[in-house]
């Protein structure tokens, strides 16, 4: 019995979780701010993967990262490798799938913080 698929799954999950945590928290902080232009549009774009069926989301990821797309073509010209059906592609797909959950949770937590406490923290440095 080979453990390589299990180890690959763990590796992809850990990397995607770390990327989602960092990127999702920063996006949530930006969305929690009231001064961001096009905040609602950005929120819709971030939430879209959560409401799409997994097959449709997978198709869109394949189309947007394939060789004929701008992102896939640029990645292939820089690295000489494709994104689709590789570990990098799996990490990107898992990150796209997990990002809305992280952003929604972190945004709700950041918006629940009392603004008086934030102002007090700013005065204290």
Task: Describe the protein's architecture and organization.
- The protein has 6 helices and no strands.
- The protein is mainly α.
- Helix 1 runs parallel beside helix 5 and helix 2 (39-51) crosses helix 5 (87-111).
- The longest helix is centred in the first third of the chain and has 29 residues, at 4-32.
Strand content: under 5%
Largest sheet composition? none
Give average pLDDT, whole number.
92
Any low-confidence stretches, pLDDT <50, length ≥5?
none
* Radius of gyration using CA atoms only: 18 Å
Q: State the order of secondary-structure elements, H for helix, E for strand.
A: HHHHHH
How many individual β-strands?
A: 0
Kindly report how far apart the N and C termini lie.
56 Å
The residue fraction in helices comes out at: over 70%
Overall geometry: elongated
The DSSP helix count reads 6
Structural class: mainly alpha
Quick structural summary:
Helices cover 79% and strands 0% of the residues.
Please render the helix and strand layout as text.
Blueprint: H1 4-32, H2 39-51, H3 54-65, H4 70-79, H5 87-111, H6 115-124
Key structural traits:
125 residues; 6 helices; 0% strand; mainly alpha
């Amino acid at each position: 019995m080979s453990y390589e698929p299990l180890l690959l799954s763990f590796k992809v999950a850990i990397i995607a979780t770390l990327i989602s945590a960092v990127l999702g928290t920063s996006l949530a902080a930006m969305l929690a701010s009231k001064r961001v232009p096009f905040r609602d549009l950005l929120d819709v774009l971030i939430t879209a993967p959560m409401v799409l069926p997994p097959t449709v989301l997978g198709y869109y990821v394949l189309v947007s990262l394939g060789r004929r797309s701008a992102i896939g073509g640029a990645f292939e010209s820089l690295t000489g490798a494709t994104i689709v059906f590789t570990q990098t592609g799996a990490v990107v797909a898992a990150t796209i799938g997990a990002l809305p959950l992280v952003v929604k949770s972190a945004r709700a937590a950041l918006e629940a913080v009392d603004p008086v406490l934030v102002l007090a923290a700013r005065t204290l440095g």
